[in-house]
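User: I'm writing a tutorial on reading structure tokens. Could you give me a worked example: one chain, its sequence, then its tokens, then a sentence or two explaining what the tokens reveal?
Assistant: Sure. Here is the example chain.
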Amino acid sequence: MSAAATALDAEQAGRRIDEVLERVTAAGDQKAVAAAEELVRVLMDFYGAGLARIVAGLRAAPDRETGDTLDELLGDELVSSLLVLHDLHPEDTGTRIGRALAAVRDPVEVVTFDEGTGTLRLRSTETGGCGCTGAPAVQQQVENALACFAPEVTTVEQEPGPATREPALLQIGTRPPQAEPATRATPAGTP
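And here are its predicted structure tokens:
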């Protein structure tokens, strides 16, 4: 079913929200009523912030190409997550995974993505350095970025990156003094 077929107008949506809140209120549990009202407020804030970013992006775009504006909006974590949530995002999963990984400080590359299990295997592309990989920090960055851009990814596994070779030890200093070459004594009478 397409998004247009399931779309509600504002009046219908408002009526449905009121009906749900009335049912919760009729149950008599004041904690449940307060929680339901808070949920509605949080969702309104979430969608309001996303719509505000879309409008701001479109307002800033009168002299730019439409593709540039769309790319900028798709790069916004909040806007992207709203589009994914409603199956409206125009980019495929692989493209969105790439977009998420581009936001990660330490470079990683996709080894495989299993759509059936949601498992994404990554490999660090860093070589050299101090030898410390910072894997937990990188893992958290990756997971945070994927949560917004590609929530289909449920598990992230990291393979070791390219083997890093310890640099050769380079000694810098002065040369040890060299012994003077011994002068050969020549027997007397020899030219």
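What the tokens reveal: DSSP finds seven helices and three strands in the chain. The beta strands are 108-114, 119-124, 155-159.
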